[in-house]
């Protein structure tokens, strides 16, 4: 991996520290796996890969910032858990390959298996 992908990788993990433990656990595992799988990818795919993960980083940072702003405006919200995520646009599913749809389904099924206390007390 060159410096740029490594910087993005680290930035994503740093951002995940702001998430609830269960989401952090899922996110960290997924990011680690995806970056490993694309370590030796062709330049064409690396550019797309980097663009998508950069977009993810910015989207999640914006969502976490907005969530914190809401929490600060609500009295007594010290135990506030940030809400993150968004629905997948319907046209995005149409653009996915069968392999990508399979990965999305597998991710959904794995997320159902994660216990509520996953990620607490470290990685």
**Sequence of secondary-structure elements:** HHHHH
What is the alpha-carbon Rg in Å? 16 Å
Major pleated sheet: none
Helical coverage, percent range: 55-70%
Number of domains: 1
Low-confidence sequence ranges: none
> Beta-strand percentage?
under 5%
Structural category is mainly alpha
Give a count of the beta strands, DSSP E runs of length 2 or more. 0
Distance between the termini: 23 Å
What coarse outline follows from CA principal-axis ratios?
globular
Mean of all residue-level pLDDT scores: 84
Number of helices: 5
Keywords: Chaperone, Mitochondrion, Transit peptide
Organism: Gonapodya prolifera (strain JEL478)
InterPro entries: SDHAF3/Sdh7
GO biological process, one term: succinate metabolic process
């Amino acid at each position: 991996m060159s410096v740029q992908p490594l910087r993005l990788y680290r930035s994503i993990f740093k951002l995940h520290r702001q998430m609830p433990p269960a989401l952090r656990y899922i996110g960290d595992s997924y990011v680690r796996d995806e970056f490993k799988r694309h370590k030796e990818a062709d330049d064409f795919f690396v550019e797309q890969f980097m663009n998508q993960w950069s977009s993810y980083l910015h989207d999640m940072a914006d969502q976490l910032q907005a969530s914190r702003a809401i929490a600060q405006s609500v009295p007594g919200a010290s135990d506030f858990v940030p809400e993150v995520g968004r629905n997948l646009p319907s046209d995005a599913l149409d653009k996915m390959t069968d392999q990508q749809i399979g990965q999305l389904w597998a991710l959904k099924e794995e997320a159902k298996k994660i216990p509520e206390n996953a990620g607490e007390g470290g990685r």
